[in-house]
Design the sequence.
């Protein structure tokens, strides 16, 4: 597995590299977010670990660039950050990522999350092959392939919604500011799950 770390904190990146490097994992590094897209296309990683708080281009901006570029749009992206995703961010970016890892990272946590994503990637590939073998078109097979990643992210977003709602209950003075975003997130999750269930009916 080839992993690309994109983070402008060189010290942290080197630490993550030491933690993740094994005989089965090859780790590449990019500390200049303005060069992120070019590096992704050059390295062709299996997984991208992307920090959010970067200059001159933020992690969210890099993510949007990845998802809007047909050549690299399907690459799995794990977000690394020191703060919890807000409900607003979940609505805007939640279905564009494959995981969300909080800093500071324990060694076992980082390895476990990366390995879990790799298992999902392998599972997606098996489903793609199974769909092709069943006679589905390549386009439909790719759609079936992506559903596993999509369901995983929806599960995470549901957990995030629960945490946000508990936060609102603990801070009633902030309820009016957060309730709209939380309700929008709830509706998004419900709609995505409904669409996913219908799509999966046509997949082997």
Sequence:
């Amino acid at each position: 597995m080839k992993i690309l770390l994109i983070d402008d904190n060189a010290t942290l990146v080197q630490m993550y590299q030491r933690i993740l490097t094994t005989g089965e994992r090859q780790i590449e590094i990019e500390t200049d977010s303005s060069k992120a897209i070019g590096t992704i296309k050059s390295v062709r990683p299996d997984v991208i670990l992307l920090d959010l708080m970067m200059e001159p281009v933020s992690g969210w901006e890099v993510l949007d660039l990845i998802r809007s570029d047909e050549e690299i749009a399907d690459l799995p992206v794990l977000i690394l950050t020191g703060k919890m995703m807000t409900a607003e961010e979940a609505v805007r970016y939640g279905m564009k990522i494959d995981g969300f890892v909080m800093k500071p990272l324990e060694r076992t946590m980082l390895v476990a999350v990366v390995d879990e994503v790799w298992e999902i990637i392998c599972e997606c590939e098996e489903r793609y092959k199974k769909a092709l073998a069943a006679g589905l078109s390549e386009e439909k097979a790719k759609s079936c392939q992506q559903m596993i990643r999509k369901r995983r992210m929806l599960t995470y977003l549901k957990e995030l919604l629960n945490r946000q709602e508990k936060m609102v209950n603990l801070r009633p003075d902030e309820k009016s500011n957060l309730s709209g975003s939380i309700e929008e997130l709830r509706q998004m999750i419900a709609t995505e799950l409904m669409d996913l269930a219908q799509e999966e009916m046509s997949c082997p």
About this structure: The chain has one domain: 2-200. The first helix runs from residue 10 to 20. The chain has a mean pLDDT of 89. The domain at 2-200 is CATH 3.40.50.2300 (Rossmann fold).
